[in-house]
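Checklist before submission:
- one chain only
- standard amino acids only
- sequence pasted in full

Submission:
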Amino acid sequence: MFAMLEAARLESLHLAQDPVTGLRAIIAIHNSRLGPALGGCRFLTYADDQSAIQDAVRLAQSMSYKAALAGLAQGGGKAVIIRPAHVDNRAAVFEAFGRFIE
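Returned file contents:
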């Protein structure tokens, strides 16, 4: 895992799960040297956990470059929520995700 972080020049990778709601989420922070990380959240089904992690890392890197090109004093980050096959309560999943971010 650390080799992947070094290869991507990733600052940090955060994983969360909430068995009650089914939340499984990843936050990747690529760079915050220019300021706090800027980025959004993707809610998708992935083939496996590694695919979700790679997507979060790739998207976080892209956000760093976009912020730099736009001249913003911000770095890049991205969140990924791994969409379960069946969601009983979507609002509860997003509330659990909000707690993870906080």
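Reviewer check: The mean pLDDT is 93.
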